[in-house]
Design goal:
Blueprint: E1 3-10, E2 14-23, E3 26-36, E4 56-60, E5 66-72, H1 77-95, E6 99-105, E7 116-124, H2 125-137, E8 142-147, H3 148-159, E9 167-173, E10 177-184, E11 187-195, H4 199-209, H5 213-223, H6 237-268, E12 277-281, H7 290-298, E13 302-304, H8 318-326, H9 332-342, H10 354-452, E14 457-464, E15 468-470, E16 477-479, E17 481-488, H11 496-513, E18 516-526, E19 529-538
Parallel strand pairs: 1-4, 4-8, 9-12, 12-13
Antiparallel strand pairs: 1-2, 2-3, 5-7, 6-7, 9-10, 10-11, 14-17, 15-16, 17-19, 18-19
Helix pairs in contact: 3-9, 4-5, 4-6, 5-6, 6-7, 10-11
C-alpha cells in the first residue's frame, strides 16, 4: 500500500496544499488546493480547502529559517551529533531565543579533502509555533518543517530532468523570498534562502510611480517586460517606463543566483564551476521577460521547472486540476515537501518543533516503556497461569504415577510369590523326577532284557548308579545310568556266544526306542561260558 503525505507551502500571497503518494508507479498527486493569504480582507483559513492537514510537512523559507555550513573531519554519527548539538546551543545563545534544528551531510565532491560538509538548518521556535498555530486553526498539525530549497531539490531528484553531467540551478522565486539549490548530477552542492523575490520589483515600481503596492503589482503584471530583446520595442511608452523603473530591482534576482554560484565555488573548492542550466519555479518565474534577462546575465539556458509533467495527475478532482494548471509553478515546492516525506532515498532535512519532539520522545520512550511494562505484566500473568497449569498437571501426573507404582508393586509382590512358589514346585518336581527316573530306566531295561534273554544267558547283578548332571544353564540334564551284569553257558547244545550277539542287537533296539543308550562289554568266554556287562544310560 502506497504511503501518503500532505504538504503545506505557506507563501506570502497563497498557501499551496498538496496531497500525494509514492508507489511503484512513481508520484501520484491526489489533491491540490491554493488558498489566498493576502486579499485585503485578511487571510483565508487553510481549512477552507477541505484537505486533511493533520500530520502535514510544512515548508520554511525567508526569515523563519537560517542555513549554515560547517566543515568537520569525517567522524562517527554519534560524535557528529554531539558537535552539531554544541553548535546549535551556541547559535541559540547568540540569537537570544530557543532554536530547533536539523542537519545532514552534503555529498563529498573531493574524496581526498579530508573534511565533510554539513548543512545545518535552524529555525526559531516562536516561528514554528506561529506556523503550528495557523495549521491548528484549520484542525491540522505539522509533523516536520523542511527548508523550501531542499524540497525544491527533492522535487528535482524525484520528478525532474536529471542529467548526471550537468550543473543546474533550481530557483524558486516567490514574492518575498528566493530559494536556491545548486545541483551537480544528483548531488546537492549548495542550498540557500534569500529575502527579496518579486516584492523588490513592486517596491521599485511603487516608488517610481508613487502608487500603492497593489497598484504596483498590477502594473508589473500588465506592463513589465524584462526580456533584453524587447528593448526599443516595448508595447507602449508606459510599459517602457515600468520596465526601466523595475529593471535594476529585477537584476537583484540574477545577482542572487550569481552570488549563490560564487558562494558554492568557495564552499566546494570547485573553481571552474559553471552553470549548465537554470530551472525556475514559483510565482515570480512568470514575470514577462525574466528568463530572457537571466539567460543574458547568466549565459546559460533558463527554463521553467515543471516536475508535474512526470507525475500522475489522473486522481485529481476536476476543480483541483484546474487550480493546479493555474498554479503549476507555484506548487513545485509543495510537491518536493511531499515526496521528501515519502521517499527515504531523498535528501532529508526536517526541523521538528519542540512539541513534536516531546510527543516523539513520549512515543519512543514513555509509550514503549508502558507497552513494555504491560507486555511484561501480561507475560508474567501468562507465565503464572502456565505455571499453575503445569503444577496441576504435575500433581495429576504424580498421583497417576503413584497409582501405577502401587499397582506395579502389588503385581511385583504377587509375581515374587508366584516365582517363589514355582521354585518350590520345581524343586519338588526335580526331586520326584530324580527319584522316579532310575525306576523308569530299571523297569524298561528289565522289561527289554526279560523279553529278549535266551535260556543260555542269565543276570548276575543289577545296579542303578547316582544321577549325574550334564550341560550348563538351560541345557542342563540329569542322566541316570544302570549297570546290568550277566553270564551264560552252553545249554542244549547251543553255545552262549552264538545267542549273545542276537540278544544284544534286540535289547539295543528296544532301549533306543525308549530313549536309552546301551553299551555292552563282554568279558570273553572259557569252556563255552561267557560273562557280559550292559551299561544303560538315559538319553543315549
Amino acid at each position: 500500500m502506497a504511503k501518503k503525505a500532505i504538504a503545506v507551502d505557506l507563501g506570502s500571497h497563497s498557501a499551496k496544499l498538496l496531497l500525494a503518494e509514492v508507489g511503484k508507479q512513481g508520484v501520484r498527486v491526489l489533491r491540490f488546493a491554493g488558498v489566498p493569504r493576502s486579499d485585503g480582507g485578511g487571510r483565508a483559513p487553510l481549512g477552507a480547502a477541505g484537505l486533511p492537514l493533520r500530520g502535514a510537512v510544512c515548508g520554511l523559507t525567508g526569515r523563519d529559517m537560517t542555513l549554515r555550513y560547517s566543515q568537520v573531519p569525517p567522524t562517527p554519527d554519534w560524535q557528529l551529533r554531539n558537535l552539531m548539538d554544541l553548535e546549535i546551543q551556541d547559535l541559540a545563545q547568540q540569537s537570544g531565543g530557543a532554536l530547533s534544528a536539523d542537519y545532514n551531510l552534503l555529498p563529498a565532491q573531493d574524496a581526498n579533502s579530508g573534511v565533510d560538509t554539513v548543512l545545518l538548518a535552524l529555525a526559531k521556535d516562536e516561528a514554528l509555533e506561529r506556523l503550528q498555530g495557523e495549521l491548528a486553526e484549520a484542525g491540522g498539525s505539522a509533523v516536520a518543517f523542511v527548508p523550501n530549497c531542499t524540497a525544491l531539490y527533492n522535487a528535482f531528484l524525484k520528478c525532474g530532468p536529471v542529467d548526471p553531467d550537468s550543473v543546474v540551478c533550481l530557483a524558486n522565486i516567490g514574492h518575498e523570498t528566493i530559494d536556491v539549490a545548486l545541483v551537480k548530477g544528483t548531488d546537492l552542492l549548495f542550498a540557500r534562502n534569500l529575502s527579496g523575490g518579486t516584492k523588490v520589483v513592486d517596491e521599485a515600481i511603487a516608488s517610481a510611480f508613487n502608487v500603492a503596492p497593489r497598484k504596483a503589482e498590477s502594473l508589473k503584471k500588465d506592463l513589465l517586460d524584462l526580456d533584453p530583446q524587447s528593448r526599443g520595442r516595448y508595447a507602449s511608452s508606459q510599459a517602457e517606463k515600468v520596465t526601466l523603473a523595475a529593471g535594476p530591482a529585477a537584476g537583484a534576482i540574477a545577482a542572487a543566483i550569481q552570488s549563490s554560484l560564487s558562494f558554492c565555488k568557495a564552499q566546494t573548492k570547485i573553481a571552474d564551476l559553471r552553470l549548465d542550466r537554470v530551472l525556475l519555479a514559483g510565482g515570480g518565474a512568470r514575470l514577462r521577460g525574466l528568463r530572457g534577462m537571466l539567460r543574458e546575465s547568466l549565459r546559460c539556458p533558463v527554463e521553467l521547472f515543471d516536475p508535474f509533467a512526470n507525475a500522475d495527475l489522473s486522481a485529481l478532482p476536476p476543480e483541483d486540476q484546474e487550480q493546479l494548471v493555474a498554479m503549476r509553478h507555484e506548487a513545485v515546492v509543495a510537491l518536493g515537501l511531499a515526496v521528501g516525506r515519502l521517499d527515504d532515498s531523498l535528501y532529508s532535512l526536517e526541523i521538528l518543533p519542540e512539541s513534536v519532539k516531546r510527543r516523539l520522545r513520549f512515543q519512543q520512550r514513555t509509550v514503549w516503556n508502558v507497552v513494555a511494562g504491560l507486555l511484561a505484566a501480561a507475560m508474567l500473568v501468562l507465565l503464572a497461569i502456565d505455571a499453575r497449569r503445569e503444577a496441576e498437571a504435575t500433581e495429576s501426573g504424580v498421583a497417576a504415577l503413584r497409582r501405577k507404582l502401587n499397582a506395579t508393586q502389588a503385581v511385583h509382590q504377587a509375581a515374587a510369590q508366584e516365582i517363589e512358589e514355582n521354585k518350590k514346585q520345581r524343586a519338588l518336581v526335580d526331586h520326584l523326577a530324580g527319584q522316579a527316573m532310575p525306576g523308569t530306566v530299571l523297569l524298561r531295561t528289565l522289561r527289554a532284557v526279560a523279553e529278549r534273554l535266551p535260556s543260555q544267558l542269565w543276570a548276575t547283578r543289577v545296579e542303578v548308579l547316582p544321577a549325574q548332571t550334564t550341560g550348563t544353564g538351560s541345557n542342563q540334564k540329569r542322566r541316570t545310568t544302570l549297570v546290568f551284569e550277566g553270564a551264560g553257558k552252553e545249554i542244549d547244545g547251543v553255545d552262549a556266544n552264538a545267542v549273545y550277539d542276537t540278544f544284544v542287537k534286540q535289547v539295543r533296539a528296544d532301549l533306543e526306542k525308549a530313549g536309552l543308550g546301551l553299551a555292552m562289554v563282554p568279558s570273553g568266554s572259557t569252556d563255552g561260558s561267557i560273562r557280559f556287562k550292559i551299561t544303560v544310560t538315559e538319553g543315549g
